Amino acid sequence: MNASRRLLKCTLPSQWGLSPCLLASDAQRTLKTGTGAPDFASDLRLSDTEVGSMKTSQVAVQVWWDSGCPLCRREIAFLRRLDTRARIRFHDLRDPSVAASCPRDPSHMLAAFHAQELRPKEGPLVHGAAAFALMWRQVDFTPLRWLGEAMGRSERVLKVAEWGYGVFLRRVRPGMQRVARWVEGDATGR
């Protein structure tokens, strides 16, 4: 067993519900490609089998996201791996067919994360921390699910999370996007 696989197994508690083998395979792919970064684009592509299973599954939440944002790409790739029950439907706002059928103006939706609950009944379109809470409640990753449930149950927790998300959007995200673009190979870092 190589050092990267051993390190990942040691740092992931089993109660998180993540497979160390899955994450170790990501590390292996990174080491094999020699890029220093995982290939998130391959994680975003769905096979015909995955698309078919999403159509027949009990999709509970739909999410609108920006594939032009390197942080969003990483977040969505991570969440797709955690969504083992296919309860989340992801809509890429950069896809012209999705943009044409948006419930709101796509330029507005690109500014923050948006989601809508579909089950048990169709809910309103929400954005920011409330959208993350809706999505996190559906994933098979206990800490995120608990956080999503806490945000959904407590108005105070949601307000604090909304405040934190606002600070993140204004102050942290621009710098993180520059770093993420640099890691992906875009030297301009725009």
Key structural traits:
single chain, 190 residues, alpha+beta, 4 strands, globular, disordered N terminus
The oligomeric state of the chains shown is single chain
DSSP strand count = 4
Strand content: 5-15%
Total helix count? 10
Mean pLDDT, as a whole number?
A: 76
Description:
With 190 residues, the protein is an alpha+beta fold. Helices cover 58% and strands 9% of the residues. It has helices at 3-11, 20-33, 40-44, 48-56, 70-82, 96-100, 106-110, 129-136, 142-153, 155-184; strands spanning 61-65, 88-92, 114-117, 125-127. The chain has a four-stranded mixed beta sheet, with helices on one face. Helix 5 (70-82) links the parallel strand 1 and strand 2 (88-92). The longest helix has 30 residues, at 155-184. The chain is globular and about 40 Å long. Mean pLDDT is 76; it is low at 1-56.
Secondary-structure map with pairings?
Blueprint: H1 3-11, H2 20-33, H3 40-44, H4 48-56, E1 61-65, H5 70-82, E2 88-92, H6 96-100, H7 106-110, E3 114-117, E4 125-127, H8 129-136, H9 142-153, H10 155-184
Parallel strand pairs: 1-2
Antiparallel strand pairs: 1-3, 3-4
Helix pairs in contact: 1-2, 8-9, 9-10
The gist of it:
The chain is of the alpha+beta class.
